[in-house]
Write a structure and sequence with these properties.
This protein is an alpha+beta fold. The protein contains 11 helices and 13 strands.
Protein backbone atom coordinates (compact mmCIF):
# COMPACT_ATOMS: atom_id res chain seq x y z
CA UNK A 1 0.00 0.00 0.00
CA UNK A 2 2.74 2.44 0.90
CA UNK A 3 4.63 1.55 -2.31
CA UNK A 4 1.52 2.22 -4.43
CA UNK A 5 0.98 5.63 -2.81
CA UNK A 6 4.64 6.50 -3.37
CA UNK A 7 4.35 5.49 -7.06
CA UNK A 8 1.17 7.59 -7.49
CA UNK A 9 2.85 10.60 -5.88
CA UNK A 10 5.87 10.24 -8.18
CA UNK A 11 3.57 9.99 -11.22
CA UNK A 12 1.58 13.12 -10.36
CA UNK A 13 4.77 15.02 -9.55
CA UNK A 14 6.41 13.99 -12.81
CA UNK A 15 3.27 14.52 -14.96
CA UNK A 16 2.17 17.91 -13.67
CA UNK A 17 5.09 20.03 -14.71
CA UNK A 18 5.67 18.77 -18.29
CA UNK A 19 2.02 18.17 -19.33
CA UNK A 20 -0.71 19.62 -17.17
CA UNK A 21 1.00 22.94 -16.48
CA UNK A 22 1.47 24.07 -20.16
CA UNK A 23 -1.94 22.68 -21.17
CA UNK A 24 -3.72 24.56 -18.44
CA UNK A 25 -1.70 27.67 -19.25
CA UNK A 26 -2.57 27.56 -22.94
CA UNK A 27 -6.25 26.89 -22.18
CA UNK A 28 -6.44 29.85 -19.88
CA UNK A 29 -4.67 32.07 -22.45
CA UNK A 30 -7.01 30.94 -25.22
CA UNK A 31 -10.07 31.46 -23.05
CA UNK A 32 -8.92 34.96 -22.07
CA UNK A 33 -8.28 35.85 -25.75
CA UNK A 34 -11.72 34.58 -26.73
CA UNK A 35 -13.36 36.65 -24.01
CA UNK A 36 -11.55 39.81 -25.13
CA UNK A 37 -12.44 39.32 -28.78
CA UNK A 38 -16.04 38.60 -27.90
CA UNK A 39 -16.17 41.77 -25.84
CA UNK A 40 -14.75 43.72 -28.77
CA UNK A 41 -17.51 42.36 -30.99
CA UNK A 42 -15.06 40.76 -33.42
CA UNK A 43 -16.39 38.15 -35.80
CA UNK A 44 -13.23 36.03 -35.26
CA UNK A 45 -13.88 35.52 -31.55
CA UNK A 46 -14.54 31.87 -32.21
CA UNK A 47 -10.94 31.30 -33.31
CA UNK A 48 -9.39 31.03 -29.81
CA UNK A 49 -11.77 28.20 -29.11
CA UNK A 50 -9.79 26.15 -31.60
CA UNK A 51 -6.76 26.55 -29.33
CA UNK A 52 -8.84 25.37 -26.42
CA UNK A 53 -9.94 22.37 -28.48
CA UNK A 54 -6.33 21.66 -29.30
CA UNK A 55 -5.54 21.57 -25.59
CA UNK A 56 -8.49 19.25 -24.91
CA UNK A 57 -7.45 16.96 -27.74
CA UNK A 58 -3.93 16.75 -26.28
CA UNK A 59 -5.20 16.17 -22.77
CA UNK A 60 -7.64 13.42 -23.67
CA UNK A 61 -6.15 12.00 -26.86
CA UNK A 62 -2.47 12.59 -26.57
CA UNK A 63 0.01 14.06 -29.03
CA UNK A 64 -1.48 12.20 -32.04
CA UNK A 65 -4.94 13.68 -31.65
CA UNK A 66 -3.40 17.08 -30.93
CA UNK A 67 -1.50 16.96 -34.25
CA UNK A 68 -4.69 15.99 -36.12
CA UNK A 69 -6.61 18.80 -34.42
CA UNK A 70 -3.82 21.29 -35.22
CA UNK A 71 -3.70 20.33 -38.90
CA UNK A 72 -7.51 20.40 -39.21
CA UNK A 73 -7.73 23.78 -37.50
CA UNK A 74 -4.98 25.20 -39.73
CA UNK A 75 -6.71 23.89 -42.86
CA UNK A 76 -10.03 25.41 -41.77
CA UNK A 77 -8.40 28.75 -41.04
CA UNK A 78 -6.75 28.84 -44.46
CA UNK A 79 -10.09 28.09 -46.07
CA UNK A 80 -11.72 30.98 -44.20
CA UNK A 81 -9.01 33.28 -45.57
CA UNK A 82 -10.83 33.14 -48.89
CA UNK A 83 -13.83 34.76 -47.31
CA UNK A 84 -12.03 37.18 -45.00
CA UNK A 85 -13.71 40.67 -45.25
CA UNK A 86 -10.53 42.68 -44.83
CA UNK A 87 -6.80 42.47 -44.17
CA UNK A 88 -7.21 42.73 -40.37
CA UNK A 89 -9.14 39.50 -40.23
CA UNK A 90 -6.59 37.78 -42.44
CA UNK A 91 -3.76 38.95 -40.18
CA UNK A 92 -5.58 37.66 -37.11
CA UNK A 93 -6.11 34.30 -38.78
CA UNK A 94 -2.41 34.02 -39.74
CA UNK A 95 -1.48 34.89 -36.18
CA UNK A 96 -3.94 32.31 -34.94
CA UNK A 97 -2.36 29.58 -37.10
CA UNK A 98 1.03 30.52 -35.71
CA UNK A 99 -0.41 30.42 -32.23
CA UNK A 100 -1.83 26.94 -32.82
CA UNK A 101 1.48 25.57 -34.05
CA UNK A 102 3.30 27.28 -31.19
CA UNK A 103 0.89 25.52 -28.85
CA UNK A 104 1.54 22.21 -30.64
CA UNK A 105 5.30 22.70 -30.26
CA UNK A 106 4.74 23.22 -26.54
CA UNK A 107 2.66 20.08 -26.40
CA UNK A 108 5.41 18.17 -28.26
CA UNK A 109 8.03 19.32 -25.81
CA UNK A 110 5.66 18.58 -22.91
CA UNK A 111 5.11 15.07 -24.25
CA UNK A 112 8.87 14.52 -24.55
CA UNK A 113 9.35 15.80 -21.01
CA UNK A 114 6.57 13.49 -19.85
CA UNK A 115 8.21 10.51 -21.53
CA UNK A 116 11.53 11.44 -19.98
CA UNK A 117 9.84 11.75 -16.58
CA UNK A 118 8.20 8.35 -17.05
CA UNK A 119 11.55 6.85 -18.00
CA UNK A 120 13.19 8.41 -14.95
CA UNK A 121 10.35 7.19 -12.75
CA UNK A 122 10.59 3.67 -14.17
CA UNK A 123 14.35 3.73 -13.77
CA UNK A 124 13.99 4.84 -10.16
CA UNK A 125 11.35 2.20 -9.52
CA UNK A 126 13.65 -0.37 -11.16
CA UNK A 127 16.51 0.66 -8.90
CA UNK A 128 14.23 0.48 -5.89
CA UNK A 129 13.03 -2.96 -6.99
CA UNK A 130 16.63 -4.09 -7.52
CA UNK A 131 17.67 -2.77 -4.10
CA UNK A 132 14.67 -4.50 -2.56
CA UNK A 133 15.60 -7.81 -4.21
CA UNK A 134 19.19 -7.38 -3.04
CA UNK A 135 17.90 -6.69 0.46
CA UNK A 136 15.79 -9.86 0.35
CA UNK A 137 18.76 -11.89 -0.88
CA UNK A 138 21.02 -10.40 1.80
CA UNK A 139 18.36 -11.22 4.40
CA UNK A 140 18.22 -14.83 3.13
CA UNK A 141 22.01 -15.08 3.29
CA UNK A 142 22.02 -13.66 6.82
CA UNK A 143 19.24 -16.05 7.82
CA UNK A 144 21.26 -18.96 6.45
CA UNK A 145 24.39 -17.78 8.27
CA UNK A 146 22.41 -17.39 11.50
CA UNK A 147 21.01 -20.93 11.14
CA UNK A 148 24.49 -22.29 10.41
CA UNK A 149 25.90 -20.42 13.42
CA UNK A 150 23.14 -21.80 15.62
CA UNK A 151 23.90 -25.30 14.36
CA UNK A 152 27.61 -24.85 15.08
CA UNK A 153 26.84 -23.51 18.56
CA UNK A 154 24.56 -26.49 19.22
CA UNK A 155 27.26 -28.87 17.93
CA UNK A 156 29.94 -27.37 20.17
CA UNK A 157 27.55 -27.43 23.13
CA UNK A 158 27.13 -31.15 22.50
CA UNK A 159 30.90 -31.42 22.20
CA UNK A 160 31.32 -29.69 25.57
CA UNK A 161 28.86 -32.15 27.12
CA UNK A 162 30.84 -34.97 25.51
CA UNK A 163 34.08 -33.67 27.07
CA UNK A 164 32.39 -33.28 30.46
CA UNK A 165 31.19 -36.90 30.31
CA UNK A 166 34.73 -38.14 29.69
CA UNK A 167 36.08 -36.36 32.78
CA UNK A 168 36.46 -38.70 35.73
CA UNK A 169 36.49 -41.93 33.72
CA UNK A 170 39.78 -43.62 34.72
CA UNK A 171 38.88 -47.16 33.65
CA UNK A 172 39.28 -48.18 30.00
CA UNK A 173 35.94 -49.99 29.93
CA UNK A 174 34.06 -47.11 31.54
CA UNK A 175 35.82 -44.61 29.29
CA UNK A 176 34.90 -46.62 26.18
CA UNK A 177 31.26 -46.79 27.27
CA UNK A 178 31.08 -43.04 27.94
CA UNK A 179 32.81 -42.25 24.64
CA UNK A 180 30.34 -44.41 22.72
CA UNK A 181 27.35 -42.77 24.41
CA UNK A 182 28.84 -39.30 23.89
CA UNK A 183 29.38 -39.92 20.18
CA UNK A 184 25.78 -41.06 19.93
CA UNK A 185 24.79 -37.67 21.33
CA UNK A 186 27.05 -35.84 18.85
CA UNK A 187 25.79 -37.83 15.87
CA UNK A 188 22.25 -39.01 16.78
CA UNK A 189 21.48 -40.67 13.44
CA UNK A 190 24.75 -42.59 13.20
CA UNK A 191 25.84 -46.03 14.39
CA UNK A 192 28.86 -45.35 16.62
CA UNK A 193 31.64 -47.66 17.75
CA UNK A 194 34.77 -47.10 19.85
CA UNK A 195 37.37 -49.88 19.93
CA UNK A 196 40.62 -49.87 21.90
CA UNK A 197 43.51 -52.19 21.12
CA UNK A 198 44.83 -54.48 23.86
CA UNK A 199 47.87 -53.49 25.92
CA UNK A 200 50.13 -54.73 23.12
CA UNK A 201 48.86 -51.95 20.87
CA UNK A 202 47.88 -54.35 18.07
CA UNK A 203 44.41 -55.50 16.98
CA UNK A 204 43.22 -59.06 17.21
CA UNK A 205 44.49 -61.12 14.21
CA UNK A 206 40.88 -61.71 13.12
CA UNK A 207 39.91 -58.05 13.36
CA UNK A 208 39.81 -56.79 9.76
CA UNK A 209 38.74 -53.26 10.73
CA UNK A 210 41.65 -53.00 13.16
CA UNK A 211 44.17 -54.03 10.50
CA UNK A 212 42.62 -51.55 8.07
CA UNK A 213 42.82 -48.81 10.71
CA UNK A 214 46.55 -49.37 11.18
CA UNK A 215 47.08 -48.69 7.47
CA UNK A 216 45.27 -45.34 7.60
CA UNK A 217 47.35 -42.17 7.78
CA UNK A 218 44.51 -40.18 9.32
CA UNK A 219 40.76 -39.74 9.54
CA UNK A 220 38.88 -40.59 6.36
CA UNK A 221 35.38 -40.06 4.99
CA UNK A 222 34.16 -42.95 2.80
CA UNK A 223 31.04 -43.43 0.63
CA UNK A 224 30.10 -46.46 2.77
CA UNK A 225 31.64 -49.10 5.04
CA UNK A 226 32.71 -51.45 2.25
CA UNK A 227 34.27 -48.89 -0.13
CA UNK A 228 37.94 -48.21 0.65
CA UNK A 229 38.30 -45.04 -1.48
CA UNK A 230 37.85 -41.65 0.25
CA UNK A 231 34.64 -39.77 -0.60
CA UNK A 232 34.63 -36.38 -2.31
CA UNK A 233 32.48 -33.91 -0.40
CA UNK A 234 30.18 -36.25 1.50
CA UNK A 235 29.98 -39.88 2.61
CA UNK A 236 28.23 -42.26 4.97
CA UNK A 237 31.14 -43.83 6.87
CA UNK A 238 33.77 -42.13 9.06
CA UNK A 239 36.91 -43.90 10.28
CA UNK A 240 39.17 -42.14 12.77
CA UNK A 241 42.29 -43.86 14.14
CA UNK A 242 43.01 -43.02 17.78
CA UNK A 243 46.68 -42.08 17.90
CA UNK A 244 48.53 -41.94 21.19
CA UNK A 245 52.17 -41.20 21.92
CA UNK A 246 53.28 -44.70 20.94
CA UNK A 247 51.08 -45.10 17.85
CA UNK A 248 47.54 -46.19 17.09
CA UNK A 249 45.69 -47.33 20.21
CA UNK A 250 42.27 -47.96 18.64
CA UNK A 251 39.70 -46.42 16.35
CA UNK A 252 36.32 -44.67 16.17
CA UNK A 253 33.80 -45.50 13.43
CA UNK A 254 30.58 -43.66 12.56
CA UNK A 255 28.15 -45.23 10.08
CA UNK A 256 25.10 -43.62 8.43
CA UNK A 257 24.52 -46.20 5.72
CA UNK A 258 20.87 -46.60 6.66
CA UNK A 259 20.08 -42.88 7.09
CA UNK A 260 19.02 -40.10 4.74
CA UNK A 261 21.61 -37.47 5.65
CA UNK A 262 25.28 -38.22 4.83
CA UNK A 263 28.36 -36.97 6.66
CA UNK A 264 29.93 -33.71 5.50
CA UNK A 265 33.44 -32.40 6.05
CA UNK A 266 32.27 -30.29 9.01
CA UNK A 267 31.11 -33.56 10.60
CA UNK A 268 34.59 -34.94 10.00
CA UNK A 269 36.15 -31.97 11.81
CA UNK A 270 33.75 -32.42 14.73
CA UNK A 271 34.56 -36.14 14.91
CA UNK A 272 38.31 -35.35 14.86
CA UNK A 273 37.90 -33.12 17.92
CA UNK A 274 35.94 -35.89 19.67
CA UNK A 275 38.67 -38.44 18.82
CA UNK A 276 41.35 -36.13 20.26
CA UNK A 277 39.31 -35.80 23.45
CA UNK A 278 39.08 -39.59 23.73
CA UNK A 279 42.86 -39.93 23.28
CA UNK A 280 43.54 -37.27 25.93
CA UNK A 281 41.11 -38.94 28.34
CA UNK A 282 42.85 -42.28 27.81
CA UNK A 283 46.20 -40.64 28.55
CA UNK A 284 44.79 -39.08 31.71
CA UNK A 285 43.40 -42.45 32.80
CA UNK A 286 46.77 -44.14 32.28
CA UNK A 287 48.60 -41.39 34.17
CA UNK A 288 46.06 -41.62 37.00
CA UNK A 289 46.61 -45.37 37.21
CA UNK A 290 50.39 -44.85 37.30
CA UNK A 291 50.12 -42.22 40.04
CA UNK A 292 47.77 -44.43 42.02
CA UNK A 293 50.18 -47.35 41.68
CA UNK A 294 53.12 -45.21 42.76
CA UNK A 295 51.15 -43.94 45.74
CA UNK A 296 50.56 -47.43 47.15
CA UNK A 297 53.68 -49.23 45.86
CA UNK A 298 57.13 -49.24 47.38
CA UNK A 299 59.54 -47.53 45.03
CA UNK A 300 62.38 -49.99 45.71
CA UNK A 301 60.74 -53.41 45.90
CA UNK A 302 57.48 -52.89 43.98
CA UNK A 303 55.28 -54.39 46.72
CA UNK A 304 52.77 -52.33 48.69
CA UNK A 305 53.83 -49.60 51.12
CA UNK A 306 53.37 -49.60 54.88
CA UNK A 307 50.72 -46.87 54.65
CA UNK A 308 48.58 -48.95 52.32
CA UNK A 309 49.29 -52.00 54.50
CA UNK A 310 47.76 -50.22 57.49
CA UNK A 311 44.59 -49.44 55.47
CA UNK A 312 44.22 -53.00 54.24
CA UNK A 313 44.98 -54.46 57.67
CA UNK A 314 42.18 -52.41 59.26
CA UNK A 315 39.79 -53.41 56.46
CA UNK A 316 40.63 -57.15 56.47
CA UNK A 317 40.69 -57.36 60.26
CA UNK A 318 37.22 -55.79 60.55
CA UNK A 319 35.82 -57.94 57.74
CA UNK A 320 37.15 -61.19 59.24
CA UNK A 321 35.86 -60.37 62.71
CA UNK A 322 32.44 -59.27 61.42
CA UNK A 323 31.99 -62.34 59.18
CA UNK A 324 33.56 -64.78 61.65
CA UNK A 325 36.29 -65.89 59.24
CA UNK A 326 39.89 -66.86 59.84
CA UNK A 327 42.65 -64.33 59.28
CA UNK A 328 46.43 -64.71 59.64
CA UNK A 329 49.42 -62.41 59.38
CA UNK A 330 53.03 -63.30 58.49
CA UNK A 331 56.00 -61.04 59.26
CA UNK A 332 59.43 -61.79 57.68
CA UNK A 333 62.82 -60.23 58.35
CA UNK A 334 66.20 -60.78 56.63
CA UNK A 335 68.82 -62.34 58.84
CA UNK A 336 72.01 -60.28 59.34
CA UNK A 337 71.00 -57.70 56.74
CA UNK A 338 73.29 -55.07 58.25
CA UNK A 339 76.23 -57.36 57.55
CA UNK A 340 75.21 -57.52 53.89
CA UNK A 341 75.21 -53.72 53.62
CA UNK A 342 78.50 -53.36 55.47
CA UNK A 343 80.27 -56.06 53.43
CA UNK A 344 78.90 -55.54 49.92
CA UNK A 345 77.52 -52.02 49.99
CA UNK A 346 74.03 -50.56 50.12
CA UNK A 347 73.42 -51.01 46.38
CA UNK A 348 73.77 -54.78 46.85
CA UNK A 349 71.50 -54.49 49.87
CA UNK A 350 68.87 -52.80 47.71
CA UNK A 351 69.14 -55.57 45.13
CA UNK A 352 68.72 -58.16 47.89
CA UNK A 353 65.51 -56.43 48.98
CA UNK A 354 64.18 -56.43 45.40
CA UNK A 355 65.09 -60.09 45.00
CA UNK A 356 63.47 -61.03 48.30
CA UNK A 357 60.23 -59.20 47.41
CA UNK A 358 60.06 -61.21 44.17
CA UNK A 359 60.65 -64.47 46.03
CA UNK A 360 57.94 -63.76 48.60
CA UNK A 361 55.41 -62.64 45.98
CA UNK A 362 56.09 -65.73 43.85
CA UNK A 363 55.23 -68.08 46.74
CA UNK A 364 52.11 -66.26 47.91
CA UNK A 365 48.60 -66.81 46.65
CA UNK A 366 46.48 -64.34 44.66
CA UNK A 367 44.38 -63.57 47.73
CA UNK A 368 47.45 -62.74 49.85
CA UNK A 369 48.65 -59.17 50.33
CA UNK A 370 52.43 -58.49 50.41
CA UNK A 371 53.84 -55.19 51.74
CA UNK A 372 57.15 -53.80 52.90
CA UNK A 373 56.81 -53.02 56.61
CA UNK A 374 60.21 -51.54 57.43
CA UNK A 375 63.79 -51.48 56.19
CA UNK A 376 64.21 -55.25 55.68
CA UNK A 377 60.86 -56.43 57.04
CA UNK A 378 57.93 -57.69 54.95
CA UNK A 379 54.36 -58.46 56.00
CA UNK A 380 51.93 -60.86 54.30
CA UNK A 381 48.18 -60.61 55.03
CA UNK A 382 46.37 -63.91 54.49
CA UNK A 383 42.55 -63.71 54.56
CA UNK A 384 40.55 -66.93 55.12
CA UNK A 385 43.71 -68.69 56.35
CA UNK A 386 44.18 -70.73 59.52
CA UNK A 387 47.31 -70.55 61.63
CA UNK A 388 48.72 -73.89 60.42
CA UNK A 389 48.21 -72.90 56.78
CA UNK A 390 49.91 -69.55 57.34
CA UNK A 391 52.79 -71.27 59.16
CA UNK A 392 53.16 -73.73 56.28
CA UNK A 393 53.26 -70.88 53.76
CA UNK A 394 55.85 -69.00 55.82
CA UNK A 395 58.08 -72.06 56.05
CA UNK A 396 57.80 -72.69 52.33
CA UNK A 397 58.87 -69.13 51.63
CA UNK A 398 61.81 -69.52 54.04
CA UNK A 399 62.92 -72.80 52.44
CA UNK A 400 62.72 -71.37 48.92
CA UNK A 401 64.82 -68.34 49.90
CA UNK A 402 67.40 -70.54 51.62
CA UNK A 403 67.61 -72.89 48.64
CA UNK A 404 67.98 -70.09 46.07
CA UNK A 405 71.26 -68.15 46.32
CA UNK A 406 71.19 -64.45 45.49
CA UNK A 407 73.40 -63.52 42.52
CA UNK A 408 74.20 -60.04 41.25
CA UNK A 409 76.93 -59.67 38.64
CA UNK A 410 79.94 -61.29 40.40
CA UNK A 411 78.33 -61.28 43.85
CA UNK A 412 76.73 -64.46 45.20
CA UNK A 413 75.12 -64.56 48.67
CA UNK A 414 73.23 -67.01 50.82
CA UNK A 415 70.24 -65.15 52.27
CA UNK A 416 67.96 -66.45 55.01
CA UNK A 417 64.90 -65.01 56.70
CA UNK A 418 63.09 -65.38 59.98
CA UNK A 419 59.36 -65.10 60.41
CA UNK A 420 56.48 -64.90 62.88
CA UNK A 421 52.81 -65.80 62.36
CA UNK A 422 49.81 -64.51 64.32
CA UNK A 423 46.17 -65.57 63.99
CA UNK A 424 42.91 -63.69 64.61
CA UNK A 425 41.34 -64.72 67.92
CA UNK A 426 38.56 -63.51 70.19
CA UNK A 427 40.93 -62.03 72.77
CA UNK A 428 42.45 -59.57 70.27
CA UNK A 429 41.39 -55.98 70.80
CA UNK A 430 42.43 -54.54 67.45
CA UNK A 431 44.61 -55.09 64.38
CA UNK A 432 47.67 -53.52 66.02
CA UNK A 433 47.68 -56.29 68.62
CA UNK A 434 47.57 -58.86 65.80
CA UNK A 435 50.59 -57.17 64.22
CA UNK A 436 52.37 -57.03 67.58
CA UNK A 437 51.92 -60.78 68.15
CA UNK A 438 53.49 -61.54 64.75
CA UNK A 439 56.40 -59.30 65.72
CA UNK A 440 56.79 -61.17 69.01
CA UNK A 441 56.82 -64.49 67.16
CA UNK A 442 59.47 -63.09 64.80
CA UNK A 443 61.57 -61.99 67.78
CA UNK A 444 61.40 -65.49 69.28
CA UNK A 445 62.47 -66.97 65.90
CA UNK A 446 65.54 -64.73 65.85
CA UNK A 447 66.33 -65.47 69.50
CA UNK A 448 66.12 -69.21 68.85
CA UNK A 449 68.70 -69.21 66.05
CA UNK A 450 67.18 -67.39 63.03
CA UNK A 451 66.28 -68.95 59.66
CA UNK A 452 62.95 -70.24 60.96
CA UNK A 453 59.25 -69.28 61.13
CA UNK A 454 57.26 -69.60 64.40
CA UNK A 455 53.57 -69.32 65.29
CA UNK A 456 52.54 -67.00 68.12
CA UNK A 457 51.30 -69.05 71.11
Amino acid sequence: MIGALQSAALFVKGFWKPVLQPAVGISLTAGLLAALLSAAGSSVAVLPWSAAGLCLAFLFGGLGWASVACVAASAGIFLTLLFAPDGLHQTIMFLHVGFLWACFSQFLRADMDREAAVVRREDRLGRLRLETERGYKAAEVCRGEIDAARERIAAYNRLRSFADDLIGAYDRGELTRRAREGLKGLFPRAETNVTLFPASGQPDPLDEMGRWTLRQKGARLYPNRSVRLPAAGEGRFLLLPLRGREGVIGWVSLDRSGGDSPFLFQDLRLALIAADLIVMSLGNAERYAQVETLAISDGLTGVYTRGYLNERLIEEFAKARHQGKKFSLLMLDIDHFKKVNDTHGHHIGDEVLRWLARQITAQCRETDFVARYGGEEFVVLMPNTRGKEALSLGRRIREEIEATPFRWEKTSLRVTVSGGVSVLSDDLKDELQLLGRADQALYRAKESGRNRVLLYE
